[in-house]
Structures are given as structure tokens and as C-alpha cells.
Amino acid sequence: MKVFPALASAALLLNGASAYAPSKVPQAKRPAFDPKRTAVNGMAAASLASALVVGPMADAIDLTVDAPSFGSSNLVAERVTREGLYKEYDVDVGDQVFDDARSTYKSAKETKGKKGKYTALIAVLVVGSFIIPMAQYFWYVRDDDSSDKFFSKAAEPEPEPEPKKKGWFN
What we know:
This protein is mainly alpha-helical. The chain contains five helices and two strands. It has helices at 3-17, 35-66, 108-113, 115-140, 146-151; strands at residues 78-83, 88-93. The protein is flat, with a radius of gyration of 43 Å.
């Protein structure tokens, strides 16, 4: 019984030793240097490099052209002194351009007058999104009788159990 593990380990060691033996290296079928391919790759690399270098420079030129120049005659903001909780503060107040506080809502009377139109629009959209696809599905399957065939099948009988085998492992 002790011979088998020794033979198995010796076989594995001898088999692994063949991995270190030199083997024949396959020769290349095409030349390692292809001038056409090298030229195309070089042109692609040059165009990519020029696009990466020139692109940010062109964007920087556009930014410098659009930048406003604040000379001595340009008024940036009005300086106002406001009183705070602990001391007075100087605040630059400019024109308010981002926040428009005017009310742009429609009146309640105008909203009530158009309520029926929007209710009808919502009803049409609901019918269009739910009822029409269902009707289309039933139109496609109206001649299909596969479900009738499936539900009208007789129940399949239970298969007979296999007889018990007589042997060592039962």
C-alpha cells in the first residue's frame, strides 16, 4: 500500500521536470518590421498629439477674448454700508440678474376656464397608453388557439415507479 503514493509522487516529479527542457521555438512567419504599418501608426500618433496640444491652446485663446476688461470707467457694483448684529458691513450691490421675483402664474379664473380641456387631454393620453396596447394584443392573438389546446389536454398519467434493484449499494 505504501508503494502507490511513492510511485505517484515520482511520476509527478519526473513529469514536471520535462517543463524545464528546451523546446523548439516556432519561427516568425512575417517580418518583425513592416514599413507601411509603422508609417500609418506614426501618422496616427502625430495627429493625436497635435490635437491634444493645440486643442487646449485654442480654448484658452477664446477665453481670453471673452474676458471683460475692467478699466477705470467701468462700474462693477455699488458699495452700500449695512448694519449687522455686531457691526456695520460694506456690501457690493449689483444688478440682480438671476432671480426674477415677478409672479408669472395665471389667474385662478383663467385656470378654471381651461380645466376641462386638460382633463380631456389626460383622459385621451390614459386611453392611448393603456387601452390601445391591450386592444392591439388581442387583435394579434384573436386567431391563436394554443391556449385552448393547452387547457383542454387530458391530465398525463403518473409514471410507474421503477422497481427496486437488488444489489450491493441499495
